[in-house]
Structures are given as structure tokens and as C-alpha cells.
Amino acid sequence: MLTLILILIPLLTAFILFVSGKKLAKTIALIGTLIELAFAVLVLVNLKQGNVQALTFKCNWIQSLGIYFSITIDGISMLLVLLTALLTPIIVYSSFNKEYSNSHVLFGLMLLMQSALIGVFTSMDGFLFYIFWELALIPIYFICLIWGAEGRQKITFKFFIYTLFGSLFMLLALIYIYLQSPVKSFDIQVLYQSARAMGLNQQAWVLAAFVLAFAVKMPLFPFHTWQPKTYTNAPMPGVMMLGGIMSKMATFGIIRWVLPMVPQAVEQYGNYVIVLAVISIIYASCIAIVQKDFKFLIAYSSIAHISLIAAGLFAMNAQGIQGGLIEMFSHGINTVGLFFIADIIFNRAHTSEMAKLGGIRGVNSQFSFLFLVVVLSAVALPFTTGFVGEFLLILGVFESNGIAASFAGLSIILGAIYMLRAFQLIMLGDTNSLTLHFPKLTKQEIITLVIIVILIIGIGVYPKPLLDITENSVNILLQGIK
Amino acid sequence: MKELILIAGLGVLALLAGLINGRKFFMPIVLIGLSTNIGFSLADWGSNEMVYGMLKLDNFALAFNIVFSAIAFLWFISAYEYFTDDNNFSDHFALVLFTLTGAFLLVSFTNMITLFLGIEILSIPLFVLVGSNKTKLKSNEAAFKYFLLGSFASAFLLFGMALIYGSTGSFDLAIISGTIAKSTSIPPMYFAGMLLMLMSIAFKVSAAPFHFWAPDAYEGAPTNITAYMATVVKTVAFAAFFRLFYSAFGSVHSEYALVLSIMCAITLIVANITAAVQANVKRMMAYSSISHAGFMLIAIFTLNAANLLLYYTLVYSISSIIVFTVIKIVKAYNSGNDSINAFKGLLKQNPILAGCLIVALLSMAGIPPLAGFMAKYFMFTTLVSNGYLWLVVIAILTSLVGVYYYFKVIIAVFQKPETENDITLSFAHKFILIICALALLVISIVPDMILGVL
User: 20 to 30 Å CA-CA from B311: which of A234, A451, B272, B448?
Assistant: First the structure.
């Protein structure tokens, strides 16, 4: 029941926002998301006490086809629900300094998306999962279409068609598995059973369909072409939702819907996906190195990080999956932080081209410090949140494929190159006319950044609570597979 | 029986209403009549009444009767100005009501004679209605094309029926099916007859490659009539298609399944790709209507799909009413221009109009969780379970093309308007748009409500 409330709070807030005026929009959105965060913590407490009954909700939806409205929370989904509940208020708060036209609709759509995302992370029915999966896409499409930058129509459209294309094949795979069993039910356990009973060849096709859907969403090379332009073109809250939370839908999907569904095929063909992911890491990192625009750099670095997560997950061992989950969490925080910083710079200097900036550290050392922490986390320095995840991920990949791991390890080195270069170009060097009068951070900006920095260092120094959340569920998952 | 008398009686009454100038009061009478028809059908539910061995009011017939009456009810309100604008209101009323009489025969026939009668009673008034915009050349041309090709199709139907009669010795669907099931060798004549009937009905439902009349007829006809053809007529034609093949040719299912599955693939590919390059929204919707016919065809050649057809036709009809109503209003506002540019800035000009249009288009494009997605999803499932994986892949790829052209309109709605003036909606239009959009949302959330009926 608590899980249902988690889905309903943002939904309800969204409808309130749609009918409320512009004036109260920010306050309502912030209060709604904070209530959601409080509830997420309550759910966490319940989960710790092992109170599964209170977290599960199941009722008939389309009875004739065996489709249930079935949701629950375990350790794996808890982490992502927590990430969603934590990031959304930060994203809402981070856009307080901007005036968007019809901001109540913007916030409403964001909350609608939050609701759908929670649904994706908690659904235990294949059909319901697909519905939430697509439902998350519609609000972000409209956010990008209405509030995006110039020339957005084509870009957002490409984004929409691309992701829809991928997920339709996921739907096909789900239908196929559904029809394998005589029970005719979309319940996740029934799907697991009938999928595992299939032959290797069938499993491989199902795996291919899922990987296509998830590779587009993450995105992995060569399905990434929609991503950089969508990220740079979308309005700031939209891109934070996209990069911070939505890209985790796919990686979560691998854990919940691929690994336990077709373990044999993953065992057999998982290496190909790992190789694809490693290619994607190196490709995206190399492109990030030569970017001139800071926002594009963040977009490509996001591809690299997400690809590393994918590689770790397909290694199918405890380290890889645990590391993937932690990295999802920290990547969410880092991405939101980086995009927020890019936005701060863009608002003040009216450009995000790195060569035109420089010397901001001398003008605004406070900003420089906060920026540096986020950058260090992005390059996975020990004692930042980025380190824990990447370390475990590379360890996981190493156990299953040593050669791939050595290439995946390059991601940290290449990451250091492009991130530090960006920091150097933007913050160090001589000031110029654009950066000479770089204004001080506002109170709201400081609060947002400090929260992000606290999260980064807090998790980096003491990641155990987060690892504890997922450990049990990951072990259960792996036992089920083996 | 009483349903038939009621609708036919309304048609005759409409002719008489012209004598006493009943323009003001006849619309409510029609609406009450249609509601009564729905009430009668509900009362007859499960009775399986036989009408002189020619019609059988089984649940399939009653369900489709309720659906097409309900759609016609919504359509009458959305097209109210079509019945008040000129002096021909009683002709318009009578013609439409006569097509509904034919519709009733088509959903309930058990004999090929009633099938033919139904098709003719439905088609002939429709030829006139398509050409009812008398002063416009396009409307006349559309009617002429539709009439010529439609007569051809009717001739094919008759020819096919004759061959079937020759090989089985009966017009009765149950007897035809029974004779073939028992016989050891099926005469080739029988298959020829079936194929001819298939072609004729494929023409009526505008499935490729017999769809060429549809874009011209849809574009040339008055928009209200286009909406009528896309909703009521299409629903009924598919119900007849299903009924004929299910009850008469069920025993040779495997023979026609291949033909129909290939036709379905051609329809989906041709219609969607052609729709994607149209600049005129009305013409684009004509092709979109053909592509949806492709989806509905799936229910004909897969097994146990009556409820899926019911759901699909209902969903498609409701969204079509919204889309065509909006096209009509936008066209009138932009002095006859119905290109995609005319839709620019609709959101600013009238948010209700734009909102309902977006809901309807998203549903037609099959975006979850809207009803259009559910309808397509059920078709996918039945296809996979019948082993047509290749067709599902085609259906998925072509529905992505569909997303492309529906979104062209949606994107235009969000652009800057070319003129700043607001569009004002009459109460009836506002009412019908909101009702249809709500209905669409309700059947998306509880599809079991419709699926469980049959």
C-alpha cells in the first residue's frame, strides 16, 4: 500500500499543479516532492524492518489477459526510488531562480514523470512495467518540446521516435514470453519461469529485443545519437530528470527484467554486450575530450558512465550489480550537479563554450570549490561517491572478462582528462570580459550545490548504508539465477 | 426486430419532417431514437432472437449495434450544423438514418441475402452523402468515384455469392459452413466465390490493394460525412466482415488467413508510408484510417478476436470523431485551409480544442497508456499467439511511421500561431470533444469493460 502512495503523491501533486495558478506553482511542487521524499524514507524504514506486506500492492487490472496492477519494493528498487525521491525536490528547487512560462504545467509534467518513474522501478507485472516505461516518456517529450531551446522540434522528435522504437521491441519480447506459459499471466514470477524454460535460441532473441530497448534508452553506442542534442537542447529541469533519473530506467531494467529473465542467454552472449558497452565507454570518452561545449561534454560523459554500468551489470556477479546500483545513484547526483553548474555558468556568461571562459576561480572562489568537488566525483576520486561505484563495477567486469575490464578501466583515466580539462578551461587561466564580473552565487544556488556536495562526500566516505539496502536483494537475485 | 423497425421508422419520419419544417425539433428525436435503440439492445441481451431466419440478434450483433448507435449518437451532436445549415436537412437526416438501417442488417445478418441488402442500403445513401456538397467539384468527383468503384465491388460480391450458392446450395451462413465442413472435397468454385466476396468486402473496409477510392472520397466529402465514414461505416463494415468469415467460412480458416495476413501487411505499409508524405491533414487522416483498417483486419484472420475488434473499432471511432471535429473547426476558421500549417498555434488559440486533439492523436499513434495503444497491443498479442511474428514486426515498424505523421500535427499545435485570434467553440462541439476525450481515457484505464462483453 505504501508503494501505491509513493506513486499517487506525485500524481496528485501534478494534477493540483495543473489547476493551480503560476504563482503557487513552485511552492506546491517543492512541498509535494518533499512529502514524497519523507514517504520514501518511511518506506525505507519499513523495508529495513522486513515489512514486505505493507510495501506490496496487487490487484486485477485486465483480468481476461492476466494483467495485474502489481507493485512492490525490494532493496534494488528501493535505491532507485530513493534516488528519484531525493533528486526531484533538488531539481525543483534548482529551478527556483528561473522564470518559465506556464511554470505550473512544467512542474506538473515533472511530477507526472516522477510518478511514472517510481512506477517503473516498482512494477512487478510486465505489462504494467511497459505502461509506466512509456508513461515516463510522454511528459519529458512535452517538457522538451515546449520549453526547449531553438530548433527543438526535430531533436525532441528524434528522441521520442528513437526510444519508442526500442521499447516496442521490448514489448514484443514481453508478449512472446507471456505466450510461452500456459498460465497466461504477466506476473513477473510467471514470466521469469516461462522465460527460463525457453531454449537458448529463443532466450537470445528475447535478450536482443531487451538490449535494443535498453541500449537506446541508456544510451549505448551506436544508439546514442539522440542523446547529446536532446540533453543540450532540453530546459534545465528536463535534462536533469533525463540524465539524472531517466537514464537509470534502462540500467534498472537490465537488473530486474533481463538478468533473471534470460540468464542462460546472458551467460552465453553477455560478453558481446560487455564489449559493446566498453566500445561505448571509450568512444564517448574520446568524443567528450574534444568537445568545445561544456554541456555536450557532460552529455558524452554521461554516455560513458552509463555504459560502464551496463558492462558491470552484464558481468552478472555481486560486485558488478552492487557497483552498478551505487553508480546509478551517484551518477544521478553527479549529473544533476554538473548540469546545474553548467546552467549557473550559462546564465552568467551566456555561453557554455569552454574556450571563451576562464579565470572564474579568481573571481568566485566559493563557486570554484563546489565545482571542483563535483568534478572530482565525476572522475571517481576516492572519498567521493563516484569512486565507490566505479571501483566495484570495474572489479565486477574484471572477474568475468579481464581484457574488457582493462579497457573499461580507461574510462577513469579518460574521464579525468576531459573533466579536469573542462575545469581548467572554465575556472583557471586568465579572466576575460565574459568572466571578469562573474556574479556571486545566490543563496538558492549555494543551498542546492551544498546539498549535492554533502551527498557526494557523505556517500563517498561512508557508502555502507546504501550498499546495505541492496545487498540482500542482489544476493537473492543471483541465487535465483544460479 | 424492434431495433430495425425503430431505425427504419426514424428514417421515414425524417422524410416526413421535411414537409412540416421540423428542422428545430428533429435532432432531439433522432438522439432519443438512438438512445432507445441502445436500450432495446441492452434489453435483448442474451436473447439470441431470430428474425425470419434472416437476422440473428446474438450478443455480437447487439454489442456492435450498441457501439455503432453510440458512435452515431456522438457523431450527430458533433455534426449538428450539417443538419441545420441548408434546406436539405430532412434529406440529410433520412439518408444517414437509412445507412444506419443498413448498418443494423450488416451486424446481424445470418444469410447472404441480408448481407447484400445491408451493404446496398448502407452504400447507396452514402454515395449521395459524399456528394452532398453540391456546389463543390471535389465533392462531386468523390461521390462519382466512390459510386463507380462501389458498384463494381457490389457486383463482385454478387458474383461471389452466386458461386458459393452454386457449390453449397444455400445462402444461409450456417448451412454453407456445415456443408463444407462435412464434404470431403471442396469444389474450386467455392474458393473462387470466397475470394470474390473477400475482395468486395476488402473494398468496403478500404484495405489495400482495394483502398484507392478512400483518400479521394474522404478528402472530397464534407468533413462531417468523412467522419461518419471513418467511424460508423468502418465499424459496421468490419463487423460484417468478421461475421461473414467467422460464421460462413470458419471451416476453411487456414485458406483465407494467409491471403488476409498478406493484405494486412500491404495495407499497413502502403497506408502509413503514404500518410507520412501528405500535407493535407484530412487526406492524411484518410490514409491513417486505411492503416487502422489494416490493424482491424488482424481480428478477422486470427481466432477468437471478436472482442478485440469491438474494442479497436470503438477506440478508433471515438478518436476519429475528435480528430475530424477539430479538422472541421480549424478548416472553417482558416477559410478552407486544412494543411498542417493551419494547425499551428492551436494550443494558444483554443486549449480545449488542442488538448482533445492531442489526446486523440496520441491514442491513434498508439502511445501508452492510451486506449489506442491498448487496442494495438491486443492485436499484437493475438498475432504472436497465432504465430505471425513477421507481421508483428511490420506492424510495429509501420506504427512508428504512424507516430511520425501524427506527431507532425501535434508539433504544429505547439508552434507559434500565424494569427493571434482565438477560436471560439460552440457548446455542442465543446461538449462532444470533452465527452469523447473522457470516454477515451476511461476505456484506456478499464479495457476489461469492453473486452469482457463478448
Answer: B272
Closest chain A residue by Cα to residue B390: A172
Which pLDDT tens digits describe chain A residue by residue (482 residues)? Answer: 888 999 999 999 999 888 887 888 888 889 999 999 999 999 898 888 888 888 888 888 888 788 889 998 988 999 999 999 999 999 999 888 888 888 888 899 999 999 999 999 999 999 999 999 999 989 999 888 888 888 888 888 888 888 888 888 899 899 889 988 888 888 988 888 888 888 888 899 999 999 999 999 888 888 888 888 888 888 888 999 998 899 899 999 999 999 888 988 988 898 899 999 999 999 999 999 998 888 899 999 999 999 999 999 998 888 889 999 999 999 999 999 999 999 888 888 888 888 888 888 888 888 888 999 999 988 888 888 888 888 889 999 998 888 888 888 888 889 899 999 888 888 888 888 777 777 888 888 889 999 999 999 998 888 888 888 888 888 888 888 87
Nearest CB among A135, A157, A169 relative to B368 is that of A135
> What does the domain layout of chain A look like in residue ranges?
1-261, 267-482
Residue of A nearest to B412 (CA): A153
Helix ranges (DSSP H) in B183-305:
188-204, 213-220, 223-228, 234-247, 253-276, 281-301
Q: Which helix (H) or strand (E) holds B329?
A: helix B306-333
Closest by Cα among B186, B190, B202 to B260: B202
- Using CA atoms, how far residue B91 sits from B87, B134, B135, in Å, is 9, 13, 16
Integer Cα distance of B290 and B292 in angstroms: 5
B384 touches chain A (CB under 8 A): yes
Sign of CA dihedral A233, A234, A240, A245: negative
**Residues of chain B contacting residue A160, judged by C-beta atoms under 8 Å apart:** 403, 407
> What is the ipTM for the molecules in this complex?
0.83
* Residue numbers of A between 33 and 52 with CB closer than 8 Å to B: none
